[in-house]
UniProtKB/TrEMBL annotation:
Record Gene3D superfamilies: DsbB-like (1.20.1550.10)
Gene name tied to this protein: dsbB
Domain of life, per lineage: Bacteria
Cysteine pairings via disulfide bonds: C39-C42
PANTHER family xrefs: DISULFIDE BOND FORMATION PROTEIN B
Subcellular location, principal: membrane
Membrane association type: Multi-pass membrane protein
Name listed for the protein in its UniProt record: Disulfide bond formation protein B
Annotated source species: Viridibacterium curvum
Family statement drawn from the similarity comment of this UniProt entry: Belongs to the DsbB family.
Amino acid sequence: MNALRNLPPRLAFLAVFVGCVVLLSFGLYLQHVKGIEPCPLCILQRYGFVAAALIALLGTIFNPRNILLKIWGVLLAAAAIAGGSVSVRQIWLQHNPPEMSTCGPDLEYMVSQFPLADLLPKLFQGEGDCAKIDWTFLGFSIAEWASVCFTLIIVIALWQVFRKQAKS
């Protein structure tokens, strides 16, 4: 347990950043190689992973200490909570599919409302059905795996907030 306490915050942020990049890359692989179109909720989850990755990258670069580490941890947790709440909504839709295939406003409307869409339009386009399960691994859907990953990010972020730092 002492080794975990002495783990530099920078390494925890780096692990989150690398994990988010791997997850986003896998999502792009499923979309562009396997032909699985993301739904609007999948795209919002990608925004959550992008936000978490950017916060973690900045945490890696700046290596915050003391109160700044706590603030950085809260920001990371907030990004993961936002993305995780979207994944939970999609899981609910997958287990309770509506009679009509819909999960909110259409993709064109949603994309037009987010400023990142201007910068990364190819990354965040798709037309899939939010209630449809196109891919599973070990019996879990993409949304369920995303929820697990967002939960892990929240745990790491809260660990950063509440950890006792080793004396320098």
